[in-house]
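Repro case for the chain-ordering regression, as requested:
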Amino acid sequence: MLSRGGAAAVTAMPAERDTPPPHASQPPGGGARIGTGDDPALVAQTLAGDRAAFGILVERYAAQARRVARAVLGDPDDADDAAQDGFLSALVKLVQYDSRRPFGPWLMRIVANAATDRRRRRNVRRAEPLDPALVGGGPRPDAAAVQSELGDRLRAALAELPERRQTAVVLFDVEGYSHAEIAGILRIPEGTVRSEVFHGRRRLRALLEDWKEQAK
Amino acid sequence: MKNPELFDHRPDPELGKALRAALEPSDHAAFVARVMANYDHALERATVPTWEVLASWFRPGVAAAIVALIAGFLFGRMVLNTGDTASIEMAMAPVEGPGLAALVTAPDPPDASVVFTSLVEPR
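-- result from build under test --
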């Protein structure tokens, strides 16, 4: 069982490393992948009761977990709740983590499950696209407005995809996980992951191309 | 599938960047602080022994049992008072008529439900 005799609070957590050296299993030209070299050590420290070590893991994976949860849930507040559930669930289950395997996919599986559970509880089949008025908040420069509009459209398009497809595309193209790792996270065959990524991309790429045409 | 893109193993940097921007969360520090604020609570919930969980249900369980007992007693008393059955002997008395005759003359032992029906059916 996890010890609780660790440091009093999380302080001086390192900045998030969103652009580290590529992971060994990362496919060529992969997305932004988090450096994970000392994850097993941080897990061991957390298990020994070091609260700050868990804080570093949260700091490191927070953005990724929140993006994955948001891909599933759409709503940013729901996504944050699910990501938090995922982190705390991972904390409780940390003794089950196999330190010979990468920590990220293990954590993302828990986060994706938490998001799926929340989505089912919410009993909503399709995530609501964000109201552009809510995204704004006053006048903005044109470039930012255009970027925001693209974001709205991408989120809306993502929300129309089946849940597994949403997660697969985001894990592959945004988070840089390999097909094999995503297969482990989603517990589906690798060929199915390839298919899900392809079909998800086809829709999103078309939207992106349209947007680029319009922007010209 | 003939489309080679189906088995494209390379992430799409342009799409990835756009999606990342669309899904990018805000207020990172607040989220981390929120998770860590629940650190102790999560561990407390996970380390509560089973017997403590059971103990927490003891009082509600006893109260529910008492309520069920009282309700059963009241219901039983109501049923006994409203019925016009004179006595158990009367209820168990053999029934006259074809039903009884068929029961007695049958070559095989009767089914328990037949016996029960013969006792409770209206006379």
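Ordering looks correct now. The radius of gyration of chain A is 18 Å.
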